[in-house]
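Running log. JK asked me to keep both predictions on one page so they can be read side by side. First protein, sequence followed by its tokens:
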Amino acid sequence: MNILLLGSGGREHAFAWKLVQSPLCDTLLVAPGNAGTAQVATNVPVSATDFPAIADLIRSRNIDLLIVGPEEPLVKGVVDYIHQQPDLSNLPIVGPDAEGAQLEGSKDFSKQFMARHGIPTAASQTFTADTLTDGLTYLDSHSLPVVLKADGLAAGKGVIIAETVAEAKQTLTDMLSNGRFGSAGSKVVIEQFLRGIELSVFVLSDGVNYKILPEAKDYKRIGEGDTGPNTGGMGAVSPVVFATKSFLEKVEEKVVKPTLTGLQQDGIQYRGFIFIGLMKVNGEPYVIEYNARMGDPETEVVLPRIQTDFAELMLAAGRGELDTISLQVSPQTAVTTVVVSGGYPDAYETDKIISDLERLEDVTAFHAGTKAQDGQVLTNGGRVLALTAQANSLENAVRKSQEAARRVQFEGKQYRKDIGLDLIRYSD
């Protein structure tokens, strides 16, 4: 099989790393890729949102399977574009069409979807610039803290938890009147704050059949103890100690099955990943958000635990044949620590030389924001590396991942030193 993978982050390096382990994978192209994907596959300088160039690449390289990593091309309709080409209409693609991707592309769409199909989630209302006054009045009587979400894609940073009414009103005004988050904030969902503990469940669907992949917990804030602004993710752990068998059974019955049934009832053939962000509240699952792709950095702990041939799994999803696959998962624990550029998630510098990667032992270094230049690996983004360790215990996996984060070097490096520690101490 010749496979084309779209994207350039740590998620895509993890996908590439896993795909090339399969005897089914003859050629793997990554567009545009990074310094890590270049080590295991062939990078091609094509943007993940340049749909005509992607179609040409599929034709010229005889691609048999397309896998879409990030959300932006999905929301913009890459699947629709490719399948509208007469000669590519039957190409297996892992990733939903633009309508299915609205589960992530519009918070308002996803909240209406959940309400329509009886999926447990926080109470909410949506406001626009035209209804800003109504929104401000609504906040006067809202319980605190209150969650404000930009409706559109905001690179994982469009969620604000306001502790006071004044802060909530200022945030709503900044989004709707002052252009904070740009067009992504042209609608704002105001949502009830749920008190509980958060985790993510990942589902792979072929439109009818599904597989529930290993769950994960990520760490979104920049500072230890979950302090400071949100980021794209500072680390992740899988499995999750509080995701008991009985809880995951509730997730399947109350969330996964109604979601997939709802998509079918709405006429959406959803072939791809559904990332379900959940809050466990008094033992019950509530959906915080959907994403239309795998998470990053959660992918870097989920994929290492999957023992089933990954290329075979992807092809079955793209062809609508997931019922023919048995999913095997390692019982080991995987922990990833994300090493980021100084200043992230605000302004940061790039082009810093990364050293000591060759000194890393018993970990997999998934490249996120990197590039290769003149024989060296340089930083090329906010999140630079996801350092994943596997072990028979959470404590050992944490230790190995953190040791790798200490070893690797570049100017301005920062990382959280508490990834997974809350789960070591966790008691229900």
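And the second, directly underneath as requested:
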Amino acid sequence: MSITVKDVEHVANLARLTLSEAEKEQFAGQLNAILKYAEKLNGLDTTGIEPTSHVLPLANVMRDDEPRESLPLEKALRNAPDEEDGQFKVPAVLE
């Protein structure tokens, strides 16, 4: 696969970028170099290697989810800019 200047122009148009001709050529060259480097992965022998999503084993480090006492309503609303009927009152954001 190869990136052409036309491909760079298309992406620049989608991103609403204005590029000079020199920049288009430069980006096409850089993107092609990245793709060429990534093609080296196709040469690796991966037979017998288990697919993984992480190279290191992961363990859940979160605490157990246990019910506990809630914050009292008065304390929760203490710093509220405005409250009504025990709830935070905020300006409407929808019409």
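Observation for JK regarding the second prediction: The longest strand covers residues 83-84.
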